[in-house]
Amino acid sequence: MSTVPANPLPRRIARSLAVAAASLLFVYLSLSAIFFWVMRQPPDFFGRVMARTPSPLMMVLPFEALWTHARAGVLRPGVTAPDFSLPTLDHKDTVRLSSFRGSKPVVLVFGSYT
Questions:
Q1: Per-residue pLDDT at 113 exceeds 60
Q2: Number of domains making up the chain
Q3: Does residue 68 fall inside a structural domain?
Q4: What is the distance between the alpha carbons of residues 16 and 22, in angstroms, rounded to a whole number?
Q5: By residue range, what is the domain housing residue 23?
Q6: CB contact set of 37 (below 8 Å; sequence gap of 6+)
Q7: Which of 5-9, 30-34, 38-42 bottoms out in mean pLDDT, i.e. has the lowest?
Q8: Is residue 112 situated within a structural domain?
Q9: Mean pLDDT computed over every residue of the chain
Q10: Is the pLDDT of residue 1 over 60?
């Protein structure tokens, strides 16, 4: 009675594919974590990183979901907004948000009108 040894090639291929898949998953999760951290940084740093990010990478990573969670913030209705200063339109003076507290409502509009 002779036994034919099992072909080790399919087992080796399966193991190689599993290692490759695990490696790709590790790279994907690592890049997602790095970009999540980058999205939580100040806009000038985020902009510099994004300017150097290749387009194919932007298509593969879940940028919208990462951005939504990274920039969600902690403000909720009824919570006092953090204080900040902005220059007036003529740049001759500075206005603080806290100077309006209790006197009149303030609406902040962010965006581009070009």
A1: yes
A2: 1
A3: yes
A4: 10
A5: 8-76
A6: none
A7: 5-9
A8: no
A9: 86
A10: no
Q: How far does CA 90 lie from the centroid of its chain?
A: 35
The reply to whether 32 falls in a domain is yes
**CA pair distance 100, 44, nearest whole angstrom:** 29
Identity of the residue numbered 8: P
In a domain, 41, yes or no: yes
DSSP letter string, the chain: ---PPPPHHHHHHHHHHHHHHHHHHHHHHHHHHHHHHHHTS-HHHHHHHHHTS-HHHHHHS-HHHHHHHHT--S--TTSPPPP-EEE-TTSSSEEEGGGGTTTS------S---
Dig out the tokens for 36 from the structure: 């999540």
Alpha-carbon gap, residue 36 to 70, rounded angstroms = 6
Cβ-count burial 102-113 (b if 16+ within 10 Å, e if not) = eeeeeeeeeeee
Predicted TM-score (pTM) of this structure: 0.58
- Please count the residues of the chain: 114
In terms of Cα–Cα distance, which of 103, 41, 79 is closest to 49? Answer: 41
Cβ atoms of residues 96 and 84 within 8 Å: yes
